[in-house]
Amino acid sequence: MCGRFTLFASPETIQAEFDLAEPPANLAPRYNIAPTQPVAVIANHAAARRVELFQWGLIPSWARDPSIGSRMINARAETLAEKPSFRTALRKRRCLILADGFYEWRKDNGSKTPFFIHLVSRRPFALAGLWEVWQTPDGVRASHLHHHHHRAKQPDRGVARPHAGHPAARGVRGLARPCAVGPD
């Protein structure tokens, strides 16, 4: 998956698109969300659907060193069940990562060209994610996020990807929506 994505939709648009009881508070537009930064998610643990901020970079609950989180930002959906770091989160802690576009880079003749991939409608969508709670040695608990993606052989309808891997994007109502790709 991407190492950068965006979320610049208004809180009211996010509320309507994801069927939230109220718009998310304190959610500023972001055009370059990177690993280790806070990410807007809808986690599967709350009784009501609401937006929370989790840090991007999964730290397994059993890990002793939090620095592992900066390396665990993406994984292939096909191998999640096999990896000890993801097994429990895959069974118990899933979430929707809110986005309205992401960046992918294509290598051409030694240079990299960025592409901004988004829905044609420019509406926000959800990426599949896992989350985990990690506790520091002094007892402070924090939620951390991991994104997983599918490696597809064929592009989604309406998407020409710069390379084979891409995020597992989900419409909130379970519908696939066409995407647009272009250099940014």
What does this structure look like?
With 184 residues, the chain is mainly β. The chain is 7% helix and 42% strand. It has two helices and 13 strands, in the order E-H-E-E-E-E-H-E-E-E-E-E-E-E-E. The strands form two sheets. The chain has a five-stranded antiparallel beta sheet, with no helix packed on it. A five-stranded mixed β-barrel has the order 3-4-10-9-6. The radius of gyration is 16 Å and the shape is globular.
Features:
single chain; 184 residues; mainly beta; five-stranded antiparallel sheet; 7% helix; globular
Rg measurement, Å: 16 Å
Form type: globular
Termini separation: 17 Å
Estimated structural class: mainly beta
> Which strand-content bin applies to the residues?
35-45%
Name the average pLDDT: 76
**What's the total helix number?**
2
The total of beta strands comes to 13
Query: Mind describing the biggest β-sheet?
Result: 5 strands, antiparallel
Summarize the structure.
The protein has 184 residues and is mostly beta strands. It has helices spanning 11-17, 87-92, and strands at residues 4-7, 30-33, 38-43, 52-56, 74-76, 94-99, 101-108, 111-119, 125-135, 141-151, 165-167, 169-170, 179-183.
Itemize the secondary structure elements and their pairings.
Layout (H helix, E strand, L loop, with lengths): L3 E4 L3 H7 L12 E4 L4 E6 L8 E5 L17 E3 L10 H6 L1 E6 L1 E8 L2 E9 L5 E11 L5 E11 L13 E3 L1 E2 L8 E5 L1
Parallel strand pairs: 4-10, 5-10
Antiparallel strand pairs: 1-2, 1-7, 3-4, 3-6, 6-9, 7-8, 8-13, 9-10, 9-12, 10-11
